[in-house]
Every structure is written in C-alpha cells, then in structure tokens.
C-alpha cells in the first residue's frame, strides 16, 4: 500500500499507517483514513475532560494513521476547538486534515443557530484563533435542517463559505444534518459546489437510510462521512444520554441488545463500529474518542475485526434489530425546536 500524502517520516509509525485504509474523499481529492477522530467529547457535553489525555490521544491517533479530525464551535461553545488547538501543537500540519463547522453555537435554543453570512465569517475567524491554524481543510454548515429554510443555506451560508474558501481560510465546503433528504435537496439545489456531507446515525446497525442515497452522492462526487456509528450512545453497553431523541421502540430494542451483550461479556459499541466499517460508500467512519483506551479499542476493531464469540453475538444483535418497525427519530428534534422558537412548551430531545 502506498503511504498517504499526510505521512511524515520520523513522526508517524509507518507500520501502523500501512495498516490503515485510505479512501478518496469525493471531489476534494484528499485521501482520508477510514477511521477518523471526532472531538465533540473534548467538551463538557460528554462529561469531564482531561486535556492532557486528549492531547496524548490526538497525538497517538495521528501517529498511528488517522488523518481526519472533526470539530466545531458548537461543542462546548468552542471548547472542543480550543482543546484541539492545544493538542495539535507540535504535530506537523501536513500530517492531518481538520474539519470544522459554522451555524450552530449556543446551548440556549433561542441563540443556538445562526446561519447568516456575517456570523459564518466571524465564526471561522474565531475557529482559526482557537485552533491556532491559518486554515482548515473542510468547513461545514452544521445541521442545515434547523435553518429557517433551505433557501437561507443556499443563498446566504454557502456563498459565505465560498468566500472563505477564496480567501484561503478553508479548502473545501460541506454540510451536515440528520435528515438525509435535506442534505440531498441542498446538494441538488446549490449553486455553490458542495464537496462533502457528514451524515450521522443513518448508517448503523439500526438505521441504514444513508445507503439509499450513496449512489446519487457518488454520482455527484460528494465525499461521505459516516458519523455516530454508536447512534449517540444507543449502541453501547453504557447506554444513551437522557436527552436522546429516539422513540421507545428503538430504545427498547437497544436495551435488549445491550443486556444481551453484557450477559455475553461483549461490548455493543464494538459491534456497532464493526458494522459501520463494513459499509461501502463512506470515505470515513467518524468516531468520538477522548482517551487512548477508546482509541486502542477502536483501532483494534479496525485492525482485527471480531473474534468468533463476538461474531455470534453480532449476528444475534442484528436479529434483534430486524424486528424494528421504526428505525429513526427524524422530525423529533425539529418539531421540538420549532415549539421552543414559537414559545410553546416542550423542546427536549435535540441536544447533541
């Protein structure tokens, strides 16, 4: 296998890099690692953060061949970007690609989203200061389904990102969101070239909706990031956070699968990652990792797959999920958000 262009002799562990798979990332031409590093957990959203451990994790991940890192100002109001900036100090800039976002910022729902051109341009300035970089490789519009309308994204946000690219502060443009139909509509209607999408929780053991769109995305040469293989905690032995928007049928099935895995001494999260790594189409599977133990566990799944015992449990868990009649929670978050914005009661289930 040829070494990727991100390989830096003297920094990388060449043997580990040669184990990693790299795929062309749509029209960007970048070759990104099949396993990539999400840093949303570099903030209080997912519990306490040990900055020194984050630093060691990032360093080790890149050294072992992971070259795509995702962050955003939404995660801890910039805390993820700030910590990541510290983590990247001393690492050759050639060794990694950084993707960040605009559009989603504050925890308060009334201040959470701002897709205006002005805010987007200010956001990238703040991001680059926090990351201590002069440019990012990918700049994404975060959760486009929450915009007042898709026209706002098309006529204001994306043109602003195009300006940012022309200025050299980003190289490529992307969009993220939960409803894949909305991502596809944006791509079809946009006059600004969209190089990639980040789709989360839509190519997992419980929901493979993204598969329907992969041929169309590939035909337009759009790079695909498959994020949240663990469905934001549903597919793990630890379980989902209280705010998870999934309905009761999904949660009940995941509880059954979780208990079965615990009884068999197998981590459900390992099976979930294995499933997503087997799916063709996405250039990379994005997984949040804030410590070296998680990194080691995920790389072990990547390198070694499942042992016979785990494979048997995996097959049983898939049968549990075959019974599902509902496999997603589309519109739940949007409806709760709209209620809050209109002054109605409600609003749980869209914090991620």
TrEMBL record:
- Whose protein is this, by species? Callosobruchus maculatus (Southern cowpea weevil)
**Pfam families named among the record's database cross-references:** Aldo_ket_red (PF00248)
The NADP-dependent oxidoreductase domain covers 35-310
Q: Which GO terms describe its molecular function?
A: L-galactose dehydrogenase activity
Under what name is this protein listed?
NADP-dependent oxidoreductase domain-containing protein
Q: Which GO terms describe its cellular component?
A: cytosol
Write down the InterPro entries for this protein, in alphabetical order. Answer: AKR, LGALDH-like, NAD(P)_OxRdtase_dom_sf, NADP_OxRdtase_dom
Signal sequence range: none
Q: Which CDD domains match?
A: AKR_galDH
